[in-house]
Write a structure and sequence with these properties.
With 274 residues, the chain is an alpha+beta fold. It contains seven helices and ten strands. The structure holds a DNA duplex (16 and 16 nucleotides).
DNA sequence: AGAGATACCTGGGAGC
DNA sequence: TGCTCCCAGGTATCTC
């Protein structure tokens, strides 16, 4: 379940493996992901060199020397990994891009909620369209308590779906929303209309520190996340509330509760989070 | 316009 | 053991 930390960990792992490499042939499974994989466009990239790996929100961007950008979204079960060309493809490998050193980049995505898009060189509009609704990056300037407070003005939605809304801030999925709200001491069901200035400060800070800590741990591996070298992350051992309903709160030993908020499992401690 | 539900998809675990 | 059911999650799209 790649959220921002997992995508960032993947990005950092991919850099030494792919930057400077030339693309070779592309294999496409043909199974549709959230959008159809652009098979012909990928074939046309043969011979192009990868110049950089960037991230915007939960999107991973491979920049090419042609000016084209290959964009990946991992959806809920997607993963990109580097493999030798000899290693057999697995079920659910939907895209394989050969590199010029007998390795390949494979997109593995059992649930097929992922996405592969090619942004052609010079088509700034396509890029604009793809990221048009994205809010600020939580680990960059532009994201702050003031920003959150401003976005919340006139709204009454519960704070948890609010911070998971990518027009508010990108990269915060269900796991890190739960953990950030615990760190900030705010109950996930609380309406954004009832959050005070000092609490917005705590929440903005909690989101930053939670995501940063998760990146430092190599992300969270619940069932299937692996970095580019197929290693697991270990931030999940630091979860305070996510997936821990019925267990004691690490702060007060009260019981962690679970409640579904707008269709998403939410975990909190009733006494530590008001 | 905001809020919430729904659709997309598969594997894994629970329960019978 | 083998079946069915439910759940997980990100985002686009819908309905109210």
């Amino acid at each position: 379940m790649p959220e921002l930390p997992e995508v960032e960990v993947l990005r950092r792992g991919l850099i030494p493996a792919v930057v400077g490499r030339r693309l070779g042939a592309a294999f496409v499974s043909g199974k549709p992901l959230r959008r159809q994989v652009p098979q012909q466009a990928l074939a046309d990239l043969c011979g192009r060199r990868i110049t950089a790996v960037e991230r915007r929100a939960k999107y991973l961007l491979l920049l090419l020397d042609s000016g084209d950008t290959l964009v990946f979204h991992l959806g809920m079960s997607g993963n990109l990994g580097i493999f030798t060309t000899e290693s057999p493809r697995r079920r659910h490998d939907h895209l394989e891009l050969l590199l010029d050193n007998r390795t390949c980049l494979r997109l593995h995505d059992p649930r097929r909620f992922g996405m592969v898009v090619l942004l052609p060189a010079g088509d700034g509009e396509a890029r604009q369209r793809l990221f048009a609704t994205c809010g600020p990056e939580p680990l960059e300037d532009g994201f702050s308590a003031t920003w959150l407070r401003t976005k919340a003005e006139g709204r009454r939605v519960a704070v948890k779906p609010f911070i998971m809304n990518s027009t508010v801030v990108v990269g915060v999925g269900n796991i890190y929303a739960n953990e950030s709200l615990f760190a900030a001491g705010i109950r996930p069901t609380r309406s954004v209309a009832r959050i005070r200035a000092a609490e917005w400060e705590r929440l903005a800070e909690a989101i930053r520190t939670t995501l940063t800590a998760a990146i430092a741990c190599g992300g969270s591996t619940i069932s299937d996340f692996r970095n580019a070298g197929q290693q697991k992350g270990y931030f999940q051992i630091n979860f305070n509330v996510y997936g821990r309903s019925g267990e004691p709160c690490p702060q007060c030993s009260g019981k962690i509760e679970k409640e579904v908020i707008t269709g998403r499992a939410s975990f909190f401690c009733r006494s530590c989070q008001q």
